[in-house]
Design goal:
Layout: E1 20-24, H1 28-34, E2 38-43, E3 46-51, E4 56-61, H2 62-66, H3 68-85, H4 97-119, H5 129-137, E5 155-157, H6 160-163, H7 168-172, E6 176-178
Antiparallel strand pairs: 1-4, 2-3, 5-6
Helix pairs in contact: 1-3, 3-4
Length: 190
């Protein structure tokens, strides 16, 4: 009889070892809203379909994932979605200071999880634990960790009618025009 022990890692945010969940680092609604579906990958003669934006981490507990993180995602969506969709009627997007702080908090949390996912196998770590814990301890505020800086800019193709149907590779070769910046996010340490 083989022994398989399942190692339950503590939640990256609160440290709990109970009820691990599957945190989708890039929210599912981003792929749906942008029309980004599955892609095909071929390895060793086999083809499989993958969700192009599915980056899942099991190191987030259910309480964090369905609690404060879900709340942050729900509040960010009405602000972020119009910017991602680049609707001509909603440009330029001008964010008030509260929206800037909320979006910055989400962006830092998301970038930390993406970095963790990409470099978790490397020794030494890329993310100080206190940055992730800071998000948990300040989950009721919309401020990223002290010292975090978030800049946001936008670009739009010269032909907006075709922008949504372009693939990522085609977009890389497209001609872009910079949008004027009407705001900046500045987060200061206390």
């Amino acid at each position: 009889m083989s022994r398989h022990t399942r190692v339950i890692r503590p939640c990256l945010f609160c440290g709990s070892t109970s009820s691990p969940s599957r945190e989708h680092v890039i929210p599912k609604w981003v792929g749906r809203d942008l029309g980004i579906g599955a892609v095909s990958e071929e390895r060793h003669g086999r083809t499989r379909r993958l969700d192009a934006l599915s980056i899942v981490l099991p190191q987030v507990c259910v309480i964090c994932n369905t609690g404060w993180m879900n709340n942050l995602e729900r509040r960010v969506r009405p602000v972020l979605a119009p910017m991602l969709l680049c609707a001509a009627s909603s440009l330029p997007v001008i964010l008030n200071p509260g929206q800037q702080a909320m979006l910055a908090t989400w962006a830092v949390k998301t970038s930390l999880l993406l970095t963790y996912r990409a470099f978790r196998q490397q020794s030494g770590g890329w993310i100080p634990d206190d940055n992730l814990k800071w998000h948990y301890h300040h989950r009721h505020s919309d401020m990223p960790p002290p010292g975090a800086r978030v800049w946001l800019g936008g670009i739009r193709p010269r032909d907006p009618a075709t922008s949504r149907s372009l693939s990522a590779s085609a977009q890389a070769g497209a001609s872009w025009t910079a949008l004027p910046t009407r705001w900046r996010t500045s987060v200061h340490s206390p």
